[in-house]
Design goal:
Helix content: over 70%
Number of helices: 19
Distance between the termini: 24 Å
Order of helices and strands: HHHHHHHHHHHEEEHHEHHHHHH
Largest sheet: 2 strands, parallel
Length: about 500
């Protein structure tokens, strides 16, 4: 391999582009589905708000819990690259099942396949990116900010397209488009896979173990059956979420016990910032639940003569992130070169402060409503603040693991990080039920105060998050990063 810096940089950049594109298409499928699935349950399947929100919450909790297993499979069994491909294939199967028309009974097994496939896939592209930029914290922050933009490029396209397709051609055609996104992602990966030949976990550089592959496939089948059962049963889902939280705490506890003193300090950093990210994802979950139903019932969706579908309002989030990501990544790089970059804990505190402004805007909008409907401009402004806050918190969540955890455990702990976000998204769906509109209530004037009251309360919760995150900054600055740990160990 050439040691020319330019060649190395070009190689890394091409590898990043490959992962950027495969993640973009995977997110195209996922966010295309989430843009319409709650509306599909409420409008097509006649689910109550509570049932739709909590079904979606159970699905997202499991979709984000399984990456802990996906990270382990990538790190220790099949290799990150093979596991990425396997997860994408399962995802395509799940979206294809949703696309079968007039079969409402297929909803739960289809969601289960998407949850399992996404879990197998999710931790591995991020793990590969962290290996591309090993030992360069400023580049890691910048790379993950741009990688997060890949998520939102895919999300923008699908969240604009699928609600329109659902209206014009039917719900199931919209889900078929999601499946097509995964097929394109797989084709993209196979055409560009050579750019990642030098990157991967240890099993990637060894012959495929057919026995291990068989065990993983059996595990996927069993997991799909179990997840199907859990999503259908709300009480079981709550119990599983509680159990998953206990498992996460035990995992951190065992790692703290077995690690060296300096490794434990790095794990404390991950624990603190993971807890802050969990709080953030309660807010994030409102986009697909309370904010989508608020848009359906209480937002004047006329935009210069164009009637915006309610599901399409969510596209404001990736649009804003697409706009804000490049200048933010540029700022991180510029400050990093000067040695003046904000500490990651400071970015989290700033993110919560900005997030609170977004939810206060949603809540205040009700004071300017006409006949129970608020102007679409309130959603544009609210999503701008919410999206910038998201970039500062969730956009750097994976960078937390990349910064503070040694490479041998990184894929697994990225999976644990996703598990934490899944738990908090279930809590977010539960929070959304506080704005559930009672059956029989159809007047926007009656539903408006339910939503605005929830949004104001969430704004104050974000203020509390800001205060806690700011108070922890001095502690976080004293904790060592993974590069420091490795240098010390050497």
């Amino acid at each position: 391999m050439s040691h020319d810096p330019g060649t190395t940089a070009r190689s890394k950049n091409l590898g990043f582009v490959t992962l950027f594109l495969v993640e973009m298409w995977e997110r195209f499928g996922y966010y295309g589905m989430t843009a319409v699935i709650v509306l599909f349950m409420v409008q097509r399947l006649a689910y109550s708000d509570d049932r739709a929100n909590l079904t979606f919450g159970a699905f997202t909790a499991l979709a984000y819990a399984i990456p802990a297993a996906g990270g382990y499979i990538g790190d220790k069994l099949l290799g990150s690259k093979r596991t990425l491909v396997l997860g994408a294939v399962v995802l395509a199967g799940g979206y294809s099942l949703l696309a079968v028309p007039d079969r409402p009974a297929l909803l739960f097994p289809a969601l289960a396949l998407v949850a399992v496939g996404g879990g197998i896939f999710k931790a591995n592209p991020a793990n590969l990116i962290s290996r591309l930029y090993e030992g360069d914290p400023a580049r890691i922050d910048s790379a993950f900010t741009m990688y997060y933009m890949a998520v939102n490029v895919g999300a923008t396209a699908s969240q604009i397209a699928t609600p329109l397709i659902a209206i014009a051609f039917g719900w199931h055609v919209a889900f078929a488009v999601c499946a097509a996104g995964l097929v394109l992602g797989l084709l993209n990966y196979f055409f560009m896979r050579r750019s990642l030949a030098h990157v991967g976990s240890q099993p990637d550089f060894e012959p495929l173990n057919a026995g291990l592959l068989g065990l993983v496939l059996l595990g996927i089948a069993v997991a799909t059956v179990c997840v199907t059962f859990i999503i259908q049963n709300r009480e079981v889902a709550r119990g599983i979420v509680a159990l998953a939280f206990v498992v996460m705490v035990v995992i951190f506890g065992l790692m703290m016990r077995r690690g060296s003193d300096r490794e434990r300090k790095g794990l404390w950093a991950v624990i603190i910032l993971t807890a802050e990210a969990m709080l953030f994802f309660i807010f994030y979950q409102q986009m697909s639940t309370s904010l989508t139903l608020f848009s359906l019932r209480n937002v004047d969706l006329d935009l210069f003569g164009y009637q915006v579908p309610a599901g399409q309002v969510q596209a404001l989030n990736p649009i804003w992130i697409f706009i804000l990501s490049p200048p933010l990544a540029w700022l991180y790089n510029r400050l990093g070169k000067k040695g003046e970059d904000f500490h990651i804990s400071t970015k989290f505190a700033m993110g919560f402060a900005i997030l609170s402004l977004g939810f206060f805007l949603y809540g205040i909008s009700g004071r300017f409503a006409e006949n129970g409907k608020v102007s679409f401009s309130w959603m544009v402004a609210g999503y701008a603040f919410q999206s910038l806050g998201e970039l500062l918190i969730s956009g750097l969540g994976l960078a937390v693991v990349a910064r503070y955890v040694a490479p041998s455990l990184r894929g697994f702990l990225m999976g644990v990080y996703f598990l934490s976000t899944g738990l908090s998204q279930y809590l977010g769906s539960f929070v959304a039920t506080y704005a559930s509109v009672p059956e029989g209530v159809t007047s926007p004037v009656q539903s408006l105060p339910l939503y605005t009251s929830l949004f104001i309360k969430l704004g104050f919760v974000a203020v509390i998050g800001t205060v806690i995150a700011a108070a922890l900054i001095p502690l976080m600055k004293r904790l060592p990063e993974a590069g420091t740990i490795e240098a010390h160990a050497g």
